[in-house]
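Standup notes, structure subgroup. Blocker cleared on the flavin-adenine dinucleotide input:
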Amino acid sequence: MGGGLIGLSTAYEFAKNKFEVEVLSKKRSEAAGFVAAGMLAAHAEGLQDELLTFGQLSQKMMPEWIKNIESDSGINCDLNKCGIVVPFQNYDDLQKFPTLKYGHYLDNNELKQEISGLNTIWKHGLLFKQDGQIDNRRRLMRALEKACATHGVKFREGANVKKLIFKNETLKGIFIQNATGDSETILCERAILCCGAWSKNLLKELPIFPVKGQMLSIQGPSNRLKRILFGEKIYLVPRNDGLIIVGATVEKQSGFDNGNTPKGIKKLQHGIDLLFPEASKWPHMEHWWGFRPSTPDLKPIIGESPIKNLYLATGHYRNGVLFSAVTSNLIYKLILNESLEDIEKDLLTKFHLRRFKTDYSILH
Ligand SMILES: Cc1cc2nc3c(=O)[nH]c(=O)nc-3n(C[C@H](O)[C@H](O)[C@H](O)COP(=O)(O)OP(=O)(O)OC[C@H]3O[C@@H](n4cnc5c(N)ncnc54)[C@H](O)[C@@H]3O)c2cc1C
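Run returned:
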């Protein structure tokens, strides 16, 4: 359920291993997978504890995983370990950065050399060479769809899952409304809930809520920026063709309000002025927005649900692109009862829904 980034990644994993898979997608175009900046930034995001472990695992798996998707789809995903520079105005802030020990320290001269044109208010930097990006919007999402189709995945666009059907706490089927307005019950052996920010609509006990993000792109000269620049307020992600993705607002109060707002675009523009003034003059090419699937502790929910044969893979918040490889692999191993390494068992315990001590009265 859900044809966004996590739904597609998971469908691909199962289909590749000869399972019969159907993807039920309410609306392809609203998926955050088409919104994200595509940073693979376990270190530059300053992730900590199990989130950092999860991100590092995924980052390690990514080259092989993407190679398979590219070969099954014929689409190059522009995976690029370009490195990410995080600039700081003072040395104390740099010292407090959670992933400091994974970065390479840049003094003022080195920082200027690394990012010529950076606003002079930034005095120090950390370079995370191990981080990078992938072109999720134009390439990865489509490549995943095509790779899924290659392995026989059936797609149903406009299939809005309305209800989960279960008996004796065991999943029996899924009730959907099709794009034509007809309703249908689909019987299934197992289902995985990957409905991103909308996941709560299917299981009201899920503590998932949307955090809106507005984005824009600007066109600069090719190769003017070689690394991602991850500022305090905004980040700049340079694609190979000179298109630079600028993100993003973090709006907890906006709910599912659609559309860009003057305030949001102004904030991004102000962020560009503060970070990399030269880019202030570069033309805006596109504005867009989307909804991050958030949880109260900002960690994903992965694993079993209170309903037998219904699994959860949601709540990836601001790192779903980064986490996609490891999530699909982990959920596959869990469902097939494959042997798990200690680190994987630990992650599944930490990301289990039960950490929220929810009341599942729905089932009784
Ligand atoms: C502005 C922004 C920038 C981001 N930047 C990055 C980044 O640089 N790096 C990174 O790693 N991550 C980033 N992310 C996060 C990443 O995009 C998400 O974590 C990820 O896309 C979540 O994937 P998902 O499949 O859970 O949800 P989505 O990709 O949102 O997909 C969910 C899908 O489920 C469908 N659905 C919902 N309800 C139903 C239903 N009832 N029936 C059927 N289908 C349903 C929806 O229509 C949607 O298509 C960013 C997100 C945003 C918003």
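Discussed briefly. The chain has eight helices and 18 strands.
Next: hand off to the docking folks.
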